[in-house]
Amino acid sequence: MTGPDFPFSGQYILFRTPEPVGRLIEESDNRLGGMTMTSSGKKTFAKIAAPLISAALLASIAAGCAGGTESGASKDAGGKAPAEKVTIKLLQNKIEITDKVKAMVADYTAQHPNVNIEVQIVKDYNTLLKTRFAAGDAPDIFTTAGYSAMASWSETLLDLSNEPWMQKVSPMTVEGMTFDGKKLGFPMAFEGFGIVYNKDLFAKAGIDKTPTTLSELKLTAEKLKAAGIQPYKEAYQETFPLYHLLNLGFAYEKDPAASLAKLQKGEMKLKDLANLNAVFDVLDIGMTYGKGQESLGVSYDSQVSDFANGKIAMISNGVWTIDPIQKVNPNVNMGMFALPLTDNAGETKMPVSVPGYYVINNKSKHIEECKAFLSWLHDNGQKYLVDSFKFIPAFTDLTTTKELGPLAVDMAPYVTNGKAIPWTQNAWPVGYKEDSPKRLQAYIGGQTNREQTIAELQKDWDNRIKK
Fold first, then answer.
1. 140, 345 in Cβ contact below 8 A?
2. Domain segments of the chain: what residues?
3. Cα 280 to chain center, whole Å?
4. Alpha carbons 304 and 327: distance in angstroms, whole number
5. Which H helix or E strand runs over 91?
6. What is the DSSP secondary structure assignment for residue 450, as one 8-state letter?
7. What is the mean pLDDT of residues 9-36?
8. Where are the alpha helices (DSSP H) in 309-384?
9. pLDDT (tens digit, 9 = 90+) per residue, 1-18?
10. Highest mean pLDDT range out of 167-171, 397-401, 448-452?
11. Which residues make Cβ contacts (< 8 Å) with residue 396, sequence separation at least 6?
């Protein structure tokens, strides 16, 4: 899913900053900062103060949303069909929308009979992507996050700056996909990460408000347990919940960009992050009131299924879970709140950002067909990206609706009230997002203690910044 515009005051959005949630957000004249990159694509964690949001910008966005594409429309922006049938290879990692992506592709190929699209959607995405490039079987279109993640692929990617839909991307999606002045990506969505909870189970346990401090989070779990309700079931077989949790330790810094710059230069250590220990407190709460070490064997699908069926009250996850949850149980009464790291409620914020971009391999033999597909996807974005995929749109001419569900609605106030923080994992050294979950899994499994885990995380960080 995706999310709104970031009216931050005195804060710095580093990566994939969210954009307007259409009618769910209010106008703001605040500004946010960001992270810059060198023209070579290397990361420079320099604080900037860019006027990314203003009342005028929001007004223009609102105007664009008002004229958004009708969800039932199916426009063909691909021009004439190619003379010979070609096959486009598409690789992406959003496993929760596998069926809907395949349905969208089926619609496209039905309208373009001379184009075949081979879709592969996998969990171990980064490994497979690198393997396919190394084996000479590179996809034509694939997905990548912005900033340092995209920097590692920048020389492989096609310049999309002059594509017609580029004029409609949210302004806050541009920085993370721009290298050497070239815009390389098609922004997929905005997303937020926090605690997804069952409102009916909270009410059954006598809980009438969501926790806004770390102590309240633990008390909430206690109340659920006392009422005979399973508080947690965390899916730590997967890596993404773990790097999202670790991100909190970085993103809760007063100046995340400055801290990342110091970490990158070796002028600061991970143990110096003010709230890193609190990340382990959150892990401990999830294990104590969840499945403990058994969490390492819990898959995303199992977690979502049990939550949808009312067997557990809380899961650490994101707005993207709305579709798989409702697929199991369309009537589940759920919401979402930010994961607190401190006992100061005023400091509790939600990470919100862009999950990734579609990009085109510049060595593809079918570049024109790939560009035509992305143009078609934008033109039909209301139908597929918003209504079908349940994404909060990253284009100003697409409309965010309440039909996106309660998680998007609950995420919006964090953005409009300046209570959103960045997804720093997209600016970590390349490969660290894959390294770090393994260290946290060792902690969950009891193989390392807190101090040892932080030391191992530091060792991995040092190895990555040397490369």
1. no
2. 86-190+354-398, 192-353+429-466
3. 22
4. 10
5. strand 86-92
6. H
7. 32
8. 322-328, 367-379, 381
9. 333 322 222 222 333 333
10. 448-452
11. 19, 20, 60, 61, 64, 65, 168, 169, 170
Q: Which token pair is 192?
A: 């937020």
CA distance 200 to 223: 14
Distances (CA, A) of 419 to 12, 197, 220, 423, 458: 12, 19, 22, 13, 28
pLDDT digits (tens, 9 = 90+) for 330-365: 999 999 999 999 999 999 999 988 889 999 999 999
Closest C-alpha to 365, from 131, 89, 103, 146: 89
Instruction: Note the CATH number of domain 192-353+429-466.
Output: 3.40.190.10
Please tell me if the domain spanning 86-190+354-398 has the same topology as the one spanning 192-353+429-466. yes
Q: Which CATH architecture has domain 86-190+354-398?
A: 3-Layer(aba) Sandwich (3.40)
Q: What is the pLDDT of residue 426?
A: 85
HSE on the CB side for 446, CA within 13 Å?
Answer: 6
Backbone angles phi, psi at 146, to 5 degrees: -90, -170
Is the pLDDT confidence value at 186 over 50? yes
Among residues 12, 1, 3, 2, the alpha carbon closest in space to that of 52 is found at: 12
131-136 contacts, C-beta under 8 A, 24 or more apart: 132/91
C-beta of residue 11 within 8 angstroms of C-beta of residue 47: no
Please check whether residue 415 is in contact with residue 18, taking contact to mean a CB–CB distance below 8 angstroms: yes
Nearest alpha carbon to residue 195 among 300, 290, 316, 306: 316
